[in-house]
What does this fold into?
Amino acid sequence: MISSGLAVSFFLLLHIGAQAFEILPGDSLNHQEITERAILNATLQACRSLALTEGTNFNFPAQPFTAENVAAACGASQSSKTFRLAILSIKLRNIRVDIRYAFNASFHFDEEMFVQGKKIITDGLVAVKASNKMENYETARQKLGEIMHPLQDFYSHSNWVELGYRFPNSNLIRAGTSIGNIADKSRATCRSCDGDDCTNNILEDIIAGKILTSGYFGVIPLVSTKPSGKCSHGGPLDQTSKIEPKGGINKDSFKSSHGNLHTRAADLAIAATSQMLEDIRLAAGDTTFLQMVGISRGSSRALCFVTDTSQSMSDDIAVVKTVTNSIIDSNKGTENEPSLYILVPFSDPGFGPLIRTADDTLFKDIVNHLTATGGGDNEEMSLSGLQLALSSAPFNSDIFLFTDAPAKDKHLKNTVIALIERTQTVVNFMITDSIVTNRRKRSNGNQPQTRMIAESDAQLYRDLAQASGGQAIEVTKAELPAATTIITQFARSSVVTLLQASRSLGQTDSFNFIVDETVSNPTVYITGRSLTFTITSPTGASQQSTDSTGSLITSTTTVGNFKTLQLQKQVGQWGIRIESDNPYTLRVIGQSPVDFLFDFVEPSEGPFGGFDSLDTRPRAGVNGRLLVSITGSDSATVTEVALVQSSKGSEETLGVVESQGDGNFLVQVDVMPVVEFVVRVKGRVQGSSNDFQRQSPTNFRASNLTLTADSENIFIPGTLLSVPFTVASNGPDGNVTIRASNSGGFESTYPTILFLEGGNSTNGTVTLSDPKNTPSGSDVILTIEAESPDGTDSNYIMLRFSIINSFNDFTHPECELLNRESNCTENCSLTAWEIYVRVTDSEAGVDRVDLIQGNGTFNTSLEAGNAGITLVSYAASCCAPEMEMLVVDRVGNVGTCRFTARDSVSIGVSQSLFLCLSIVALGHFIFKLSEH
Ligand SMILES: *[C@@H]1O[C@H](CO)[C@@H](O)[C@H](O)[C@H]1NC(C)=O
Ligand SMILES: *[C@@H]1O[C@H](CO)[C@@H](O)[C@H](O)[C@H]1NC(C)=O
Ligand SMILES: *[C@@H]1O[C@H](CO)[C@@H](O)[C@H](O)[C@H]1NC(C)=O
Ligand SMILES: *[C@@H]1O[C@H](CO)[C@@H](O)[C@H](O)[C@H]1NC(C)=O
Ligand SMILES: *[C@@H]1O[C@H](CO)[C@@H](O)[C@H](O)[C@H]1NC(C)=O
Ligand SMILES: *[C@@H]1O[C@H](CO)[C@@H](O)[C@H](O)[C@H]1NC(C)=O
It folds into this structure.
């Protein structure tokens, strides 16, 4: 619904107590801080474990841990932006639970919904593990954030802390286990608080019997569903706490009913979240886990190609091969080594499959085997290929698309723009033999071309490049190799954008940008024909495009419509004035650890305040908000955030910046621009005497249409997925055009036209059906678009679904000792022991067996004829009489097996991980109720 006066309600909501751990900064620990601390802790554990495996040193950073010092300790400082982005994504999904599911007691462990709350966690964990296995990390992060919320709330909303426990309830993340004795629905659990003193309101027999209960919660006065004798959540919003037994038991903040226990509850929530992350790490392996949190070796950049493979493309494909081989060979083992490789081929009618791998040798091999074949008439499925790449590339990537043909699938233009905006991906087009270059070729006496791109077809690519902040490079096939320097540049680590602008009507204009101390290799890219420019340095010196002897530009390359200028590094404000009768784009980049990331957010209209990230365009003409984080520096502050009109003038809308702690800033603008804009951030690193300037390459638009959709984010193969959505507008009455598109190629049905009364809303439903054989852990991005009746405005909503086959397998693999030979005596150094073990899994099959303790010779092989069974042999000196191995099945159920030189086998869940479990024979667990 459209609502005005949001600014007022936002600030009121800031001060209302939250139902869960708070979601806004304050003295108490909130969901964001709990989540961040646990992720930092778990990431350090993963990096330490990886270092142990690799035999390298690992040093914990100084406290307090931050995304910066943790990334540095992991030897991955260049990953600090992707790390922060991953943390932010997880946090935003966590706090969304309080906004979307405010009154769903199961998501908060309210009202003794223990079974339901636990099912949310364990089902979600299955989805996270499946997504990781398919390397769909963003989907994994989103689900992870969602299930962290109930896990953390358990410690605030239940009486676990009051029962005296000092460790997390590990069985909350283990399907098929008991989390303890839950109070019967009819059993009284609380008495009224004694005036202000609310510390002893849980009944003694509940405490003595170690019975679990949680508080009831309701915001509607007089109507309460609280059964007699039950505890309430408590706090000013909770109406149930005003009827007998009065008062509450939550520990959300220091001011809560049981606020004296807030710190213990929050610490347990951190420990429980760490433990869940550890379970995910053991299931995924260290490297995969680190990728999920955005930490990788090398540049943390993806090398991402979308290439036309139709017949006329053999020259271009040769260039893709050359540049791939050169980037991989020259950067191997350096901080410029790409951490991910993506390739999507397309022709007509085919496109894909998507190839995505971190294995450079494999990628080289695949690229080197690309051939130019097929392709139908003159048009190819370029946008389908691009849609696939955009759906699976990490956020903030640069994609390079090679083609010499028009798009056959032009209808995907808006979907592609939606994906560009939501993922802040830059798309650069390498267009060979467009009509402009052809004309020149023919005048050079070359053979006439058999295919060419008309001006209007090239314009589609230029529009998409412009929307993303990329270049549409138009060159002849012969010139293409010289244009690929841009690819090499963007594969490097820490590339930041200082300025990006475009002028579609070819106006003469001047632009400014700041080069700060941290920036190296400042480089200017200009695409456009017949233009001249003048560059001015901070000291006022200037150099014109015609002047080849000046000292400001250290080198110039021109190929086709594409110019690259390397600037001398001089700290301060630079200017560039461009004169042209044609359209042009300008992008100034450099390398610097300091960058920013941001998301548009919207204040919640629900009872608990907070803000929610948008999956849509922000609203035009009303106030808007961004959550901005500075990366690469713990001390940097934001001094200015502006929304800058991007394609005509340079009109700016300044925002009001408010620090949120942890390097995050909330920025508010009074009126969102009604024209396209980019986001520009200025800031200051402590100790520096100059501001830095960074800019989003992505061009954003606001819209007068709003789209909302809420649905289950899990899609079970063989079923239909219904996604109800609502469109609203404050414009005149009319028919809104609806389009739905998904990255999985699944069949869908939806209304193509919806009548919308101005100021009102209307509903529709998209129904997706998928082929039954989609593997578990695949994901699909659904984009629903709505276009205003006059066609001038549009909005979209982008939703991610994971495809999960089954939630019913929760047994981990078992170990069977086949044989043990041991001649251990007193003098251990002369003696040895050896075991043979068969590892089986009753459902999914064994995925991985890793040695986690012991330094003997460890070998695994698959049992002949049964790939789901693993055989292990282990031989060690009797001086090391113990070994432990991790056993993981294909859906990520994790167990461990311990063997010793003499004693019998014990099977269980890693003891270091699950301190509170005592392990007895045959994998049965008993909850130990005493502390240890
Ligand atoms: C950090 O993680 C480890 C391993 O999961 C866990 O044992 C420890 O309790 C965690 N630390 C905190 C402060 O939660
Ligand atoms: C939204 O509505 C306002 C006022 O009616 C109009 O000026 C603006 O152009 C519209 N924005 C878009 C993106 O259509
Ligand atoms: C909206 O579409 C319906 C069905 O196509 C049509 O009958 C109606 O006249 C349209 N209304 C407007 C205002 O265009
Ligand atoms: C909005 O549309 C619905 C369904 O057409 C209608 O029932 C309702 O009265 C309308 N509301 C307003 C405020 O016009
Ligand atoms: C649209 O759906 C929402 C919730 O799904 C419902 O509250 C609303 O009344 C519906 N509106 C119309 C016009 O049907
Ligand atoms: C123990 O067995 C190992 C190999 O199994 C053998 O090399 C070693 O000589 C034996 N030692 C004794 C004391 O028998």
